[in-house]
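Practice set, problem 2.
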Amino acid sequence: MRRKKNRQDFRVYLLLGAMSVIALFPFYMMFVMGTYYSEDLFRGLPLLISDYFMENLKTTLDNGLPATYLNSIFVSAVSVLACLFTSITIGYALAKFRFRGQKAILVLVLIGMMLPTQISIIGYIMEMRVAHLTNTLWSVICIWIANPFSAFFMMQFLQDSVPEEMLESARIDGCSEPGILFSIVVPCIKPAIMTVATLVFLWSWNNYLLPLITLNKQKVYTLPLMISNISVSYRQDYGAQMLALALSTFPVLLLFILGSRYFVKGITAGAVKG
């Protein structure tokens, strides 16, 4: 019986290992292609690392990789913090309170989710011009302060994961509403917080359209803009671009690895133990 169970476990681990290799293969190929001369990439699909790595690395550094890396980290980190604060407070208000105009606010949130980005971005660019924030990193941060999807996601999660009895008990004990929110509600919705943080970080990190429109100075470029503009001697250096892409994936992978256990616990988050 034990031998049969060991065989089953071996098959499961073998299947999971094969799936992991398939999932990670594109990342490996991206790094391998970043070690080749640009023209060599058109001769076939390389599978082994080449000796052109240092030249491609020098090209990415000459095009401002360290500065744009810091710009992207700052933009994504501030965007996540701002989005979490607004989405948690909006979601908490819509899920646990009843007030005049609640349905109107919910309708606005839903309309914001349904509007295509290409349409809503026009008014946003006009706002940034009036506020004199164009060509600054704040022009690509402010758009995440009021993210409709994050607010709606938090509202749905709070409705199912935070019991009313828990909040009423805290109010009876004299806890203030901000105290209830940050000391009781926030610990109960850690999986939702990690989910929103990961998604917003990923969306902000990979955002290309908005920086392309609002940022015209190289010193405030983010990684997608810098990577698309890598060129050497009046030609596009695809090898250096692939290396820059490979280097840009590390923060996202690290964030997912650190927060993956919260996704597993998401289904039981906020449960009340008897």
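Problem 2, part (b): a different protein.
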Amino acid sequence: MSALSPNPVPTGIAGLDDVLGGGLTPHRLYLVEGTPGTGKTTLSLQFLLEGVARGEKGLYVTLSESADELQAGAASHGWSLDGIEVYELVNELGLDPESEQSILHPSEVELGETVREVMERVDALKPSLVVFDSLSELRLLAQNPLRYRRQILALKQFFANRRCTVLMLDDNTADVQLHSIAHGVIVVEQVRREFGAERRRLAVVKMRGKKFRGGFHDMTLDTGGMNVFPRLVATEHGAEFDATPASTGSAELDLLTGGGLVPGTNTLLMGPAGVGKTTTAIRCLLTALERGDKATYFLFDEGKATLLARSAQLGMDLRPHLANGSLTIKQIDPAELAPGEFACQVREAVETHRSTFVVLDSLNAYIHAMPGEQYLILQMHELLSYLNQKGATTLLVLGQHGVIGDVRSDIDLSYLSDGILLFRYFEAQGSVRTALSVVKSRVNAHERSIRELRISTAGLQVGEALDDFQGVLTGLPAYGGKVAMLDGASVTAGPSA
């Protein structure tokens, strides 16, 4: 990095600057690759606009778009290009078939003229930031790889002598020779899916003399520009916290879990539909809020209004905590939200909202939004490790297929969880009841017994330990003991969850 300009040059995209460790090394030439529609122009405009905000001069050299098209594209994001010089190398004269020389008709003369015009414009304006859009046109003019490479090298040396930081945009994502010339290479991609919005991602594949976060990072293009969501690396985060177990709000459930929920751990609530997983999560959440904690509830499946109405009906009203700001409920559409964006929302909940209690309800929709099972496991591992290191208490709701018999999950996440609460239906005295047990805990010496769970307008009730259960883990439990179960006659049944 130059001694005169020790600070990195921001790109205008906070997430990309984070991936790059602060920004770009000044006075270097960078390649931005991607097929049409991936966001190269948007990225470069944000780069120039950030420079204008700092008082620097910016030049946009375009061979593929007109100035009017660029202005219209910027206006769609609410931007003005005032302060950015837009120089069109394609104009009406160049498009005239009577013209003796046109950049649309490749020739050695036209290539030299094109490069010379760019150099003259740079010398006249003296910009510190330059965008060259795009190299595809220059490649056509060169006609052979040797002349093309020499022209790029000449431009690189020219810009370096003028102390310019340059972004060169290219539609060709397989030009390895160009990679060797550029100081850094950023690749943007668009992946279309059979259902839901297309997914966009970005990767820094090369950056000389600078540490950067490798791999793909999810990104979005929306009104207001490009947003990059840096890949979550759990080892980069950590915090001091008190690991004393906290009550779930039910004395019997505390006994079952070995003292309550421990900060810095995650618990998987697993069972068939309607068995009480969400209601149990809400009971634990409400208890944390009543202690003065802040919490965030990520809701994938159920509507927010439905959740609030059902909770109030069960005597667990969350609305006062929403009103005072201690609780945030985020409705998530997995068809529209990329996993990297979701991870950034979780980080925001913990680091900005200061949430120490997090609920993900449910993982089923999150699983279906993922492009592949192997990526889901890695994403969830990093996400849960991050939450644990931040001292958050995390509840994960996972619905299983089936009601009785062979009950299965979409994917096995049990080994990622610190604790597992298992819910099962069983039949006793001519009615369908719910059995609750803890089958795993890494931090507490938990009960090995099975207790009955009942949901009513009185809220969540957990009964005494029931002896003589058979076949709970098979999905067809049968109870033949003598311990009295919860009396359903004295309460009015509420909605299941």
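Answer key, part (b): The chain has two domains: 14-231, 245-479. The CA atoms of residues 210 and 414 lie 39 Å apart.
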